[in-house]
């Protein structure tokens, strides 16, 4: 009994319980991916679903870019995998008995985030292309609600990528002395501007994710016949 009590003191009881957050996340992920694969959307009323745009060819790499993003990894490490240690509060389920799990073993793939960012930059123009295509539906210029949502999606993804820590490194994060480098002042100015965006990186990450999911649901609603496609401006 004494040994059991000592074990419970060292290892928080939360670690001994099923990690329902993790299993719920896995269930939702399987459900979401299954829906995308089983019920593809393609084009609806001149709109191209961001999930099925030409970027579908590099979706796995773009997906890894988002999955390894710093804005997300701190959340899934702490809330899904209950690690790495963040504080000594047992309510977090942390334990000093566990070895560091961040960026180790399978999670070493997180170190490739700085390379996945190039895939994110490469597919960015396609989101603006989808917006432009939606404006000429039926051969007539028309600005509709769906077009506004596609533009919002493109802008938010642009802000998310631009505020990325990997971009911060490229902008000047690896520079030790701006006065020693060529065009140092310009580099410092660029770095400061990116730093402003970087301060809001997590906000852009979550907003861009919610909007791209919302657009998919919006287009599925249109496909089902719901009167959601409002016409804001139309030029004959």
Order of helices and strands: HHEEHHHEHHHHE
Low-confidence stretches: 1-12
Helical residue percent band: 55-70%
Q: Supply Rg.
A: 22 Å
Order of strands, main sheet, comes to: 1-2
Main sheet overview: 2 strands, antiparallel
Count, helices: 9
What is the number of E strands? 4
Question: What best-fitting shape do the alpha-carbon axes yield?
Answer: flat
Average residue-wise pLDDT: 78
Instruction: Determine the N-to-C terminus distance.
Output: 83 Å
The fraction of residues in strands falls at 5-15%
Structural class: mainly alpha
Whole-number total of structural domains: 1
What layout of secondary structure does this protein have?
Layout: H1 2-10, H2 20-38, E1 43-44, E2 47-48, H3 59-67, H4 70-80, H5 113-135, E3 141-144, H6 145-162, H7 165-173, H8 184-198, H9 201-223, E4 231-235
Helix pairs in contact: 3-5, 5-6, 6-9, 7-8
């Amino acid at each position: 009994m004494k040994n059991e009590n000592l074990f419970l003191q060292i290892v928080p009881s939360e670690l001994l319980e099923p990690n329902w957050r993790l299993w719920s996340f896995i269930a939702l992920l399987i459900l979401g991916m299954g829906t995308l694969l089983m019920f593809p959307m393609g084009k609806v009323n001149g709109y191209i679903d961001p999930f099925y745009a030409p970027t579908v060819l590099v979706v796995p790499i773009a997906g890894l870019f988002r999955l390894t993003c710093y804005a997300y990894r701190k959340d899934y490490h702490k809330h899904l995998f209950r690690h790495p240690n963040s504080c000594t509060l047992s309510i977090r389920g942390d334990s000093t008995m566990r070895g560091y799990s961040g960026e180790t073993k399978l999670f070493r793939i997180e170190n490739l985030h700085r390379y996945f960012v190039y895939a994110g930059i490469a597919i960015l123009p396609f989101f603006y292309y989808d917006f432009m295509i939606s404006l000429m539906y039926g051969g007539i210029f028309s600005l509709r609600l769906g077009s506004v949502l596609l533009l919002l999606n493109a802008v938010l993804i642009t802000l998310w990528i631009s505020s990325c820590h990997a971009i911060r490194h490229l902008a000047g994060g690896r520079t030790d002395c701006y006065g020693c480098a060529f065009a140092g002042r310009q580099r410092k100015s660029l770095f400061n501007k990116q730093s402003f965006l970087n301060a809001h990186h997590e906000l852009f990450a979550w907003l861009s994710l919610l909007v791209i999911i919302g657009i998919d649901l919006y287009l599925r609603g249109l496909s089902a016949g719901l009167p959601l496609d409002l016409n804001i401006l139309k030029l004959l």
